[in-house]
Design brief:
By secondary structure, the protein is of the alpha/beta class. A hairpin with a 4-residue loop joins strand 15 (about 575-580) and strand 16. Keywords: Metal-binding, Multifunctional enzyme, Oxidoreductase. Its cofactor is Mn(2+); Mg(2+). In the N-terminal section; belongs to the malic enzymes family. GO terms for molecular function: acyltransferase activity; malic enzyme activity; metal ion binding; NAD binding; oxidoreductase activity, acting on the CH-OH group of donors, NAD or NADP as acceptor.
Length: about 750
């Protein structure tokens, strides 16, 4: 099928459309319903009647945006009417939910009368925390937005005007940085004089471009003061009337530093680009066809041409989704009365700054694994970069507070953590650990120090202040990689071939393994050539506090050196691998998933104790269940006795102060109705959050099913039971995975020091 057929099939699948309403509170019992509606609902109603601001406390108002359109100017489709615009407006709501966790109620108004639209929208103010105006034709859209902003005491935002302005403004900030020009000196030519073009020109003025340096061209040519004086243009276009002679787009572009296209495709040819000033900036943003193609613009001349379009199949897509979800997120969270110019400028500057930072691996993978690095082909972040939420929303919130339009203030340090929690429970849990790590960063040896992903992770550790990373490997290679990656990072490097501790490390390894068949010559060779052994001895000797390895080789081979050199803790006979699985409303720790193939009862008990200790590092009070296909003796054989005895051993241990039970089936462990209804004698009290599988096969299969089919985000594997903090990465882990495990290792080291 073609794109149109695929899209129709996508939209008509049951349930039709793209949005639905879901409840956020329990509604499974009679008491739940009496709280949700009659008679309990009277209490919040009375509270809001006494204090209208309590609507933000007791209703969804503070996270609800009204999405409004009449369908008179739908991108690429024109005036298709209110009903036909509904798929577009639903889609815009989906983007607000997907990128910023904002709920949306869309309503399409079947009128072209600005008075009727203003009246209808203004009357909805009690329902919403903000209003998003979309796809209303110019010049009526200007009047509608202005009147709504004057009349309503909540943010009103017209994305067709301001979204392109803000995102292209961020691109402009970085473009002038790359070509070493000043905003105050720029000559800017605009093709198009509709809502988006006028708003973009106004925004560039807010950023620092002189108004008199802007030349705007509509279908009749350059907008001049003569045309304005003759009444040939509306008041909005007249703001950019120029004193220059009449002319066409080619005249406007001659000598210009920047071209901004918000008109129609094919207006610009290579000769017009060649007529521009040195190192020109060409933003050809007409959709679906730009005024000039990206590659045609770049090839038009020999110096640097920085180009952007509105298309996703070329670099530098000016995409409004980089703006409006995060603009509303920040505005809603401070209960702003409006979205003002200061907030828009803050959003653009935050986007520009983010583009200069190292790009997460997941973002690069989403766009084809091509390197993404600040430069002419990467001016602005990608739409799927989750960091946009954490950078833009706080910048907008801060600007709202500082400019006096916020009703509440925020602790911006904790606000970022609140935003992370919106994107997943795993982020919320990892932030707890990373914040602990920051209080006392430790030395983390990275065995694969020449690997670019490891180097980028080390730079991130330093940037976030969670660890003092030490890169192990060839010094020249590492320094070359740092330069190639463009990182502003001066890493700590230990090159085993030049280390003055090489002989001492060889002696330590020899002493540890000489009765296991290792010769002194072999020991010296291993610490010199194998950074897993070097790093293991480094930690064992106290020259580093933790070790991370395994990014480029199989788990068993990466685990072997630290097991041989560091070994298990004094109170442990076994190491084990643990994953933290984060669901929307709960976190579960599962073990063993990576190490022990067929553990006995003693091993299972020890794994349960270590996994519970790990949960405590995440501020989770453990409730441990030993899993089986049997419930509390319903089947009695060697296999079911093993987890049963493990649970008994832990319960008998006076040092264990957390609830433990088993053997039990998986649904018994995690479903409250089953646990408390059928098995009310169980020790757990509440559903388990630590699950101990009976063997490696079950553990590995189980966690992967939970991750893939259950929609859980996985953090790990985290290695427990070692004498010093060691974690073995999975092959192909990303920067964030390495940083997360480094944080866990640092917290482990802190507790050992304590």
């Amino acid at each position: 099928m073609g794109l149109d057929e695929d899209a129709l099939d996508y939209h008509r699948r049951d349930p039709p459309g793209k949005v639905a309403i879901e409840t956020t509170k329990p509604t499974s019992t009679q008491r739940d319903l009496s709280l949700a509606y009659s008679p309990g609902v009277a209490a919040p109603c009375r509270a809001i009647a006494d204090d209208p601001t309590d609507a933000y406390t007791y209703t969804a108002k503070g996270n609800l945006v009204g999405m409004v359109s009449n369908g008179s100017a739908v991108l690429g489709l024109g005036d298709i009417g209110a009903q036909a615009s509904k798929p577009v407006i639903e889609g815009k709501g989906v983007l607000l939910k997907r990128f910023a966790d904002i709920d949306v109620f869309d309503f399409e108004l079947d009128t072209d009368d600005p008075d009727a639209i203003v009246e209808a929208v203004a009357l909805t103010e009690p329902s919403f925390g903000g209003i998003h105006v979309e796809d209303i034709k110019a010049p009526e859209c200007f009047e509608i937005e202005e009147r709504l902003r004057e009349r309503m005491d909540i943010p009103v935002y017209h994305d067709d005007q301001h979204g392109t302005a803000i995102v292209s403004g961020a691109a402009l900030l970085n473009a002038v940085d790359l070509v070493d020009k000043d905003l105050a000196d720029l000559e800017v030519a605009f093709a198009g004089a509709g809502a988006s073009a006028i708003a973009t020109a106004e925004f560039y003025v807010s950023l620092g471009v002189p108004r008199e340096n802007v030349t705007m061209v509509d279908s009749e040519g350059i907008i001049t003061t003569a045309r304005a004086d003759a009444g040939e243009i509306n008041d909005y276009k007249a703001r950019f009337a120029s004193d220059r002679p009449a002319g066409d787009l080619a005249d406007a572009m001659a000598g210009a530093d920047v071209f901004v296209g918000l008109a129609v495709g094919g207006l610009v040819d290579p000769e017009m680009v060649r007529s521009m000033a040195r190192d020109p900036v060409v933003f050809a943003m007409a959709n679906p066809d730009p005024e000039i193609g990206y590659h045609e613009a770049r090839a038009a001349r020999d110096d640097t041409v920085i180009a952007a379009t509105g298309r996703s199949d070329f670099p530098n897509q000016v995409n409004n989704v980089l703006c409006f979800p995060f603009m509303f997120r920040g505005a809603l969270d401070v209960r702003a009365r409006e979205i003002n110019e200061e907030m828009k400028v803050a959003a653009a500057r935050a986007l520009a700054e983010l583009a200069r930072e190292d790009v997460p691996d997941a973002v690069a993978k989403a766009y084809g694994d091509d390197p993404l690095r600040y430069g002419p082909e990467y001016l602005i972040p990608k739409a799927l970069d989750p960091r946009v939420l954490f950078e833009v929303a706080p910048a907008v919130a801060r600007a709202a507070v500082e400019s006096g339009v916020a009703r509440v203030d925020l602790d911006l340090d904790t606000y970022r953590e609140d935003l992370e929690a919106r994107l997943g429970k795993d982020r919320e849990m990892m932030r707890i650990v990373l914040n602990k790590a920051k209080t006392d960063p430790k030395r983390v040896a990275l065995a694969e120090g020449t690997n670019p992903t490891t180097i980028r992770a080390a730079a991130r550790m330093v940037e976030e202040g969670i660890a003092h990373p030490v890169l192990l490997g060839d010094r020249e290679t590492i320094e070359g990689q740092v330069a190639d990656l463009g990182l502003e990072f001066d890493p700590a490097i230990v090159d085993p071939t030049e280390a003055d501790v090489l002989d001492a490390y060889a002696d330590r390894l020899y002493d540890a393994r000489k009765r296991k068949g290792l010769t002194r010559v072999e020991a010296a060779d291993r610490v010199r050539t194998d950074t897993d052994y070097f790093g293991s001895v480094m930690v064992e000797a106290g020259d580093a506090d933790a070790l991370l390895t395994g990014l480029t080789h199989h788990y068993p081979s990466a685990l072997r050196p630290p097991l041989q050199v560091i070994g298990t803790a004094e109170d442990a006979d076994y190491a084990a691998g643990v994953y933290m699985l984060a669901f929307r409303n709960r976190v579960i720790f599962v073990a063993d998933t990576t190490v022990n193939q067929d553990p006995g009862a003693d091993e299972l008990a020890e794994i349960g104790r270590h996994t519970a200790d790990l949960a405590c590092r995440f501020n989770v009070e453990p409730r441990t269940a030993f899993l089986s296909y049997s419930n509390f003796g319903s089947v009695d054989n060697a296999g079911t006795r093993k987890p049963r005895r493990a649970a008994e051993r832990l319960r008998a241990d006076p040092a264990v102060d957390f609830p433990v039970d088993g053997e039990m089936q998986a649904d018994t462990a995690v479903v409250e109705d089953v646990l408390e209804g059928t098995y009310d004698f169980a020790e757990l009290g509440e559903p388990a959050n630590v699950l101990i599988f009976p063997n490696l096969e079950a553990g590995n299969v189980g966690y992967k099913l939970l991750q893939r089919l259950g929609g859980a985000d996985a953090v790990g594997p985290m290695l427990v039971g070692m004498d010093d903090p060691v974690h073995v990465l999975q092959r192909g882990d990303e920067v964030k995975d390495i940083v997360n495990l480094a944080g866990v290792a640092v917290v482990d080291a802190q507790e050992r020091d304590g």
